[in-house]
């Protein structure tokens, strides 16, 4: 793939990928489709929210599936759950970015006051998008948690019995 080709994924594209690949695909899509202060930016933001929601639901389902016995192809359930939580934070920040983005795309910026107000809106937009990026990085880091070695299937030790208590007459 050439360096100038954009990554564009649909939620269903993520279903046949490993958790790592799916997260990397969403990160590449987000990186390649910048949020701009126009209708395209609104479309990209809602697309990103859709991808993140699909991926968070997938991670949560994989975590539940991982709790079943004999599943070895997935990261540990705790890692998948933590990653889903970080994805939830990214979704929240993208959703919070919608308010300043909508205002910036639908409000004229003709007067000095409107231009000053837009500085605050741009700042809020940037903060939420940066926080969403940090949440995605944390989701990726959660998947990188080393897996504990597989324990042998030795029988569990017998429980210790408490000494019998005698009743006094």
How large, in whole angstroms, is the Cα Rg?
A: 24 Å
Q: What does the average pLDDT come to?
A: 83
Count of helix runs: 4
Low-confidence blocks of residues: 152-165
Number of strand elements: 0
Protein structure class: mainly alpha
Q: What is the percent of helical residues?
A: 55-70%
Pick out its properties.
169 residues, mainly alpha, 62% helix, elongated
List the helices and strands and how they pair.
Elements: H1 19-32, H2 39-66, H3 77-106, H4 112-143
Helix pairs in contact: 1-2, 1-4, 2-3, 3-4
Write a concise synopsis of the structure shown.
By secondary structure, the protein is mostly helical.
Report on the structure:
With 169 residues, this protein is mostly helical. It is built from 4 helices and no strands. α1 runs antiparallel to α2, α1 runs antiparallel to α4 and α2 runs antiparallel to α3. The protein is elongated, with a radius of gyration of 24 Å. The model is unreliable at 152-165 (pLDDT under 50).
């Amino acid at each position: 793939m050439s360096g100038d080709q954009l990554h564009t994924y649909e939620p269903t594209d993520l279903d046949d990928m490993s958790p790592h690949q799916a997260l990397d695909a969403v990160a590449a899509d987000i990186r390649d489709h910048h949020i701009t202060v126009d209708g395209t930016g609104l479309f990209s933001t809602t697309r990103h929210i859709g991808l993140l929601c699909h991926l968070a639901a997938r991670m949560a389902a994989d975590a539940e599936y991982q709790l079943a016995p004999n599943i070895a192809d997935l990261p540990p359930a705790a890692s998948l759950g933590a990653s889903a939580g970080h994805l939830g934070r990214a979704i929240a920040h993208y959703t919070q970015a919608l308010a300043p983005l909508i205002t910036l795309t639908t409000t004229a910026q003709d007067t000095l006051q409107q231009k000053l107000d837009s500085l605050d809106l741009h700042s809020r937009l940037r903060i939420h998008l940066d926080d969403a990026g940090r949440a995605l990085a944390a989701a990726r880091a959660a998947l990188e948690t080393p897996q504990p070695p597989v324990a042998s299937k030795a029988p569990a030790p017998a429980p210790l019995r408490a000494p019998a208590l005698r009743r006094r007459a």
